[in-house]
């Protein structure tokens, strides 16, 4: 039986990542809010590469959900099903809702508590420290940023980056990819493009590529794209709202098409724009505003619309430099570094949740 609720409207947020954390925070004093996430904490996702070379950095970037949600209820369990009026969790809980917001951008990586994630980063750090040669597989933002972090903090290590595509950073423009390549090679990172690594070929620390090259590495990191967190929706009442890429189709008010009380925000949606955390936060602001209006019984004509944003992306290159692409302008060096690479937007992200930046 679904857990009953009182007079106050209930909003259930599934996914406490970049977008979901903010919407739950914004609504906690306006409704009976439940936040369901498979782990106890929110982690600022793009900081995970820095945390591998500096594990103490993660103390500020991993935030227990309960710390910024004193007036909401946090449920630590994966959501497994949705019906028209309730959400089911892996632990078998049924949580009724008046309004639902799906924000499951990408699935977690298995660590359940902050302590587990901190020890994971400590182990990753030890792995890097004790290796002379390191192989990063994948030349998207994760592979580029990880190679940048390692070569900055451990300039004497031999770092090789292998990418199956013909250029780095394919999610943004060619110039950005070229600037990343130039920066990495200037730091003596070996970049191999147009080849993939046969992972099962590894023998005595030697990896073979699809082009027959042999790469010696004491350890490797798989930096390939994170899957979309929507596979769990395939058997739910939203199964017909997934597009061919597994993204939830939303209308301009950020409601799942055809559902008046179900919203979706962040990377899980089909909004035609770059998948970026600051945009997931912008979605959260619009959806929270709309939810507040609906909770107060306001007319639907008052709901705000979300307009897809033009491309803006930052890629860090170590602690001081970076690459920025805004519309069709690409810039690299110290300025993008000052904007992103120093603190990786951690202070700002913490303040948005009402926490001290330090
Ligand atoms: C290397 C890298 C660098 C980046 N740099 C930037 C940057 O500089 N600026 C920027 O704005 N963006 C950046 N991004 C993109 C940004 O991280 C994503 O766009 C953002 O995390 C999307 O937010 P979200 O809320 O949609 O999903 P997420 O932040 O992925 O959160 C999803 C949450 O849902 C939970 N979840 C998933 N499935 C379930 C389930 N079934 N039940 C319960 N919980 C579930 C997960 O545990 C997670 O907490 C970067 C990404 C990468 C990989």
UniProtKB/TrEMBL annotation:
GO terms for molecular function: electron-transferring-flavoprotein dehydrogenase activity; flavin adenine dinucleotide binding; NADH dehydrogenase (quinone) (non-electrogenic) activity. Keywords: FAD, Flavoprotein, Oxidoreductase, Ubiquinone. Its EC number is 1.6.5.9. It holds the Pfam family Pyr_redox_2. SUPFAM superfamilies: FAD/NAD(P)-binding domain. GO terms for cellular component: cytoplasm. Residues 10-287 form the FAD/NAD(P)-binding domain. Putative FAD-dependent oxidoreductase. Belongs to the FAD-dependent oxidoreductase family. This is NADH-dehydrogenase (Ubiquinone). It comes from Handroanthus impetiginosus.
């Amino acid at each position: 039986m679904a857990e009953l609720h009182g007079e106050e409207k209930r909003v259930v947020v599934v996914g406490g990542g970049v977008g979901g954390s903010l919407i739950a925070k914004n609504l906690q004093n306006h409704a009976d809010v439940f936040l369901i996430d498979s782990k106890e904490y929110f982690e600022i996702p793009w900081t995970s590469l820095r945390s591998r070379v500096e594990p103490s950095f993660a103390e500020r970037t991993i935030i227990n959900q309960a710390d910024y949600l004193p007036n909401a209820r946090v449920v630590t369990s994966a959501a497994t099903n949705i019906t028209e009026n309730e959400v089911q969790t892996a632990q078998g809980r049924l949580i009724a809702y008046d309004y639902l917001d799906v924000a499951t951008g990408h699935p977690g990586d298995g660590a359940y508590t902050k302590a587990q994630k901190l020890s994971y980063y400590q182990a990753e750090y030890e792995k890097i420290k004790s290796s002379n040669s390191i192989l990063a597989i994948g030349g998207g933002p994760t592979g580029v940023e990880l190679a940048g972090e390692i070569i900055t903090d451990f300039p004497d290590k031999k770092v090789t980056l292998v990418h199956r595509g013909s250029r780095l950073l394919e999610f943004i423009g060619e110039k950005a990819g070229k600037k990343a390549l130039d920066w990495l090679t200037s730091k003596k990172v070996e970049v191999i493009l147009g080849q993939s690594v046969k992972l099962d070929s590894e023998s005595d620390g030697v990896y073979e590529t699809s082009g027959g090259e042999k790469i010696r590495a004491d350890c490797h990191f798989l930096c390939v794209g994170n899957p979309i967190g929507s596979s769990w929706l395939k058997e739910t009442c939203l199964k017909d709202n997934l597009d061919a890429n597994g993204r939830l189709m939303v209308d301009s008010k950020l409601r799942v098409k055809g559902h008046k009380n179900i919203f979706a925000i962040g990377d899980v949606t089909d909004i035609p724009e770059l998948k970026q955390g600051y945009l997931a936060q912008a979605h959260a602001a619009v959806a929270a505003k709309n939810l507040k209006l609906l909770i107060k019984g306001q007319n639907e004509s008052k709901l705000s619309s979300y307009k897809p944003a033009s491309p803006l992306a930052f890629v860090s290159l170590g602690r001081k430099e970076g690459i920025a692409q805004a519309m069709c302008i690409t810039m690299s060096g110290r300025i993008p570094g000052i904007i992103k690479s120093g603190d990786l937007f951690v202070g700002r992200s913490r303040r948005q949740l009402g926490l001290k930046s330090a």
